[in-house]
Amino acid sequence: MSATEYFDDPTVCRLDTQRKMVEPCSIVIFGASGDLTARKLIPALYHLFKEKQLPPAFRIVGFARREKTDASFRAELRTALDQFSRTQPVDDAVWLEFATHIVYCLGDLTDPTAYQKLEERLTAFGNPSLRHNLLFYLAISPSQFGAAVEHLQQAGLLSRRPTNGWQRIVVEKPFGHDLASAHALNAELTRYADENQVFRIDHYLGKETVQNILMFRFSNSVFERLWNRESVDHVQVTVSEKHSVGGRGGYYEEAGAMRDMVQNHILQVLALVAMEPPVSLEAESIRDEKVKLLKSIRALTPVDVARQVVRGQYFAGVMDGQPQPGYRQEPKVRPDSNVETYVAMKLLIDNWRWSGVPFYLRTGKCLPLGASEVRIQFRPTPNVLFAAVCGSKLDPNALTLRLQPNEGISIRFNGKVPGTQVGVRPVRMHFSYDSEFGAYTPEAYERLLLEAVAGDATLFIRRDEVETAWHIVDSIRRGWEGKPLSNREFYAAGTWGPMAAEELLAQSGHVWRDPQPVK
Ligand code: BG6
Predict the structure, then answer these.
(1) Among the residues of 85-171, which ranges form H helices?
(2) Spatial distance between the Cα atoms of 190 and 466, rounded to a whole number of angstroms
């Protein structure tokens, strides 16, 4: 089913009828020879085109240093599309039409004349909108952001207050490696662009299931009234990954799980799960609430970090019956590396709604299953009637938001085991995206690119949001300084992480509930 067909259903309340009137524009991709362009950006734009969601007039301009022609660039992208498109096979007729919108502009990011050439190319399109409505996608190293925006401004392609059209900048993570560097990057970008022209990507926000967190919370009356310290015992956010660090050792040695996953994806999910209702659905209202929530997370001192945060690193193990080398044996990883491939933590949110409710977060590589989910565990029933007889065997109710895979929501509650004897056991109610909506699952980048073209910043990270998240991450990393990993913090590849993570929850009488494989 296509995106538009969904909305023919009379029961759908459509919220964005006004918003998606995207204007003709040029999308300029810096770093167009890179992996992101081939794997994510072009497949996303191809699908948007196929779904007729792009404006009637648009151009995609690849900007990079390698010698290429329009034709050779298109041919490369076609090969990549055959490999990475979510729909197969690629539709030849659609591709041929789509490809006429793609051009290549050879240029060095540090060379001001390259931007003049870019300007000439945009002007030569002959349509003023394609010259003045510009989305610059910086798929380049953050160390190059400053030069790119400065040269764009000097070439007359970027202005804080454009008199004609609009100009926006999309930047990828990692956005800095700590608060100070993120602050410096923000200062560099906002020297030449207004904050409302900067669109910082966190691809988790483009996921349907992550967007559904707000819909689920604020379009139902049943759940939101339970969404507080009166009813919730604790919350678990698990983003487990089966794959190893593999070929990304060089990057990962600088990042680690904390910077790679927690600073962005996991704190974003936490913010959406725990934030207060926004005053409206406007981008700023939603982002205000997310920032407020992040600011309510109780700061961790180094002593708290030792008690509440667990690092881990995988050593050699077996995954799916195959030997998996340890992290320290991965290419470009130091043989005595202390970089964490796993992190688990207990955070407390000091606000009226959540005071005293532990939020447990964990993520790691080389875990038994790739799955992201949020589990809201409700308080146990009073210790009378069934609870008095069953004790800890009476499972507390839980609601699980399965972000991926097997996207959906499940509620776990207790029911009578049928029969002449009396027995209670947990049963589940499931909602699955697949069975409800069929197989239409747009990639996160489709939604994010469309929003950036439409100028809606809701799904992008605001400057104060990114800086607040770094503040949290920095305080944890400070607690680790000068402390190598202890033996309790290693785990065999293919297991659910180090023992220390189990102990972290056990201190409060809790246990991790591991995601279950899809049956
Ligand atoms: C990226 C991280 O941002 O997110 C990767 O750099 C991680 O290390 C990936 O694997 C996870 O994304 P997804 O969409 O596969 O859950």
Answers:
(1) 92-99, 112-124, 128-132, 145-154
(2) 14
pLDDT digit string, tens, across residues 468-486 = 999 999 999 999 999 999 9
**pLDDT beyond 70 at 7:** no
Residue 98 · residue 46 · CB < 8 Å: yes
Q: Is residue 123 part of a domain?
A: yes
- Catalytic, 265? Answer yes
- In this prediction the pTM is 0.95
Run of H or E residues at 100: none
Which string of b and e fits 58-81 if b means at least 16 CB within 10 Å? bbbbbbbeeebeeeebbebbbebb
Contact 501, 312 (CB under 8 A): yes
Name the strand (E) or helix (H) holding 217: helix 208-218
Range of the domain at 49: 3-172
Q: How far is the CA of 225 from the centre of ligand 1 (A)?
A: 33
**Nearest residue CA, atom 14 of ligand 1?**
204
Beta bridge partners of 232: 378
**Ligand 1 atom nearest residue 243's Cα:** 10
- On whether residue 514 sits in a domain, the answer given is no
Same domain, 299 and 247: yes
Cβ-based neighbours of 470, under 8 Å, separated by 6 or more: 176, 178, 179, 182, 263
> For 382-411, how does the pLDDT look when each residue is reduced to its tens digit (9 = 90+)?
888 888 888 888 899 999 999 999 999 999
Q: Is residue 349 part of a domain?
A: yes
pLDDT confidence of residue 411:
97
Q: Is the CB of 260 under 6 A from ligand 1?
A: yes
In a domain, 251, yes or no: yes
Are residues 333 and 477 both part of a single domain? yes
Q: Which residues contact 483 (CB under 8 A, 6 or more apart)?
A: none
pLDDT digits (tens, 9 = 90+) for 326-355: 999 999 999 999 999 999 999 999 999 999
